[in-house]
Amino acid sequence: MQPASLALAQQLLGFDTINPPGNEASCMAFFAAWLSDQGFEVQLSSFGEGRSNLVAQMRGSAAGKPLAFTGHLDTVPLGNQPWQHDPFGSEIADDRLYGRGSSDMKAAIAAFAHACIKQQPAIRAGRGVVLLITGGEETGCDGAQALIAAGTLPEIGALIVGEPTANYPVIGHKGALWLRCETRGKTAHGAMPELGINAIYLAADALGKIRHFSPGAPHPLMKQPTLNVGRIQGGLNINSVPDRTAFDVDIRSAPNLQHAAIRQRLGELMGEAVHITTLVDLPAVLSSEENLWIQSIYRHCQAFFEQPLQARVVPYFTDASLLLPALGDPPCIILGPGEPKMAHQTDEYCLVSKLGEAEQLYGQIIAEWMKG
Question: Which residues pair with 92 in a beta bridge?
Fold first, then answer.
């Protein structure tokens, strides 16, 4: 039997929400209307043309803070490789639901929405649930920033992030520090380079210095922090000395590292010839494995795994980096049906069987939370 959430997942996948530009508004409006029809109170908010966030609440009658779920509706681009399955066709083949955003992470959103509907009597009698649905996550949590800036976040007691984990409970993820490094020279004719200052050479010198730069000491769980130069751009034409070059640095950190200190060390190493601008600054996330709520989720998830569950983190970032501090740092688990290896891949898919498991898991977690 197919999971109840499958049809909703297919409908969400039918919307093109590739970011950039995002254009989540139509998909978000559809989902808001769907949730409203199911008894949620919904509030849409815009953070730009065609961009929006959604806060949906199903209030309870018992004392205590509600349980929250979060997910994003934007997706990454399709890539250059041809797809064998329509990225917006929601095709199903051999237990695989294909589509851009199936694993990352529209299937999870459908699963926790349906779990809430199924548990609606318990939620009404209990502490309630909140859904925080964002746009703009893939480009640095732009939607979450706007949601926080609006100052309308409700109080919550715990947060579940539906990012792809194949239903394995994950207690944290690395932080992300994205920096734009710019060198500025002096232009001149390419036949008389001695009259100019070559910004590409300045950038090359800086890149040589940071190639083996270590952001800091390894973390017991998140291991070694990483640095990658992902983009470089310089020069306007071949027969001129370039007066500007920029390269972008992607640093993934852990809770034992401070981003301000990393940036300062990197700046000192590259020298005054390099101007640094911060593009994204997202702290690492790590919940205590000893937390009683985390332990209860481990128990629910263990039924789907043969080996005892171990503390696990993921290298990608999530909206939790910003939402948790804004919400008072409640316990957080990352748990979703998507296949981690399929995120951002050509012919992305989510296993339908995992979707059904997630729906069940979310329902069990909701029911237990409502008991207090």
Answer: 97
